[in-house]
Amino acid sequence: MSIEAYLPAGVTTEDVIVVMASITVLVCFAAVWSSLIHRDPSQKRAKVLAEQRSALRSGMLAPRRRSERLNTASFMRQVVERLQLMKSAQAGNISNKLMCAGWRSKEAVIQYLFFKLALPFVLGGVALLMFYGFDSYNLSDGMKLIICISVIGVSAYMPDVIIKNASKKRQEAIRKSLPDGLDLMVICTEAGLSLDATLTRVSQEMASAAPELADEFSLTGLELGFLPERRAALDNLAQRTDLQIIRSLVNTLVQAERYGTPLSQSLRVMSTESRDERMLKAEEKAARLPAMMTVPMILFILPPLFVVLLGPAIVRTIDALSGV
What we know:
Shape: flat
Oligomer: single chain
Number of strands: 0
Radius of gyration: 29 Å
Largest sheet: none
Strand content: under 5%
Structural class: mainly alpha
Helix content: over 70%
Number of helices: 11
Distance between the termini: 47 Å
Number of domains: 2
Order of helices and strands: HHHHHHHHHHH
């Protein structure tokens, strides 16, 4: 059976080859173009922090009255507000998940709720149109139904999977760069800087090496200067990162400010603990490596080895028996 039997009516193999070649050229051009573009993440981060600073300032200085709702032409916002998805019980949990992934704006929550609602309908409609409308593939009705239900289920959980992966990558980056950040904090505190000045200085020094940690420290430094309670700013740091080592750091900083213990000494102890934890995780991954390499070695290394070692002997044995 030829390939054209699986293609929609009016589409030939040459058309598919032309489309795939065009897509390949566009992807290669985009990859080369993106690799040549110089991106400076500090400018974008500085703009975001300036907006957060102005938002904190306006929140602190604004009168305590209900603000007027602003009209917007955003289609996603209109859909979310009309369905009252922002008033659901899960909106707070969604906001926390997005903060862990590095998306703190209200627009991110609106986009998440919109795609969470729209993706099953869009991708499910595309699957139904492809299998039942155009009948592109000669499949049974039961198989078509299973594929359509699978597409709807996968599209419903796709935003959660994307956010979870982004959160894990961000947490891993923060965990790896935290010992170096704590070392810089020790140097700054021993030089006589306050906590908010220390966080601001460390975020500036680590902006290129560890942008995730620098972003969190910079925002915490801003909140320490604007929020009425300093502990609330530190608790926000622990909530945004959702890491045990950050919670320990927050508890250490709170106790140091409450009881007047030397901040540099506490930070030095935390730096040692975080570096030991990073070394333990590296050793744990190294210890799992032999067990993980066992199956690939059995499947891909031992068969060629047996062929190389036993092949000549088997061939000579066959030749000797055929001669007899």
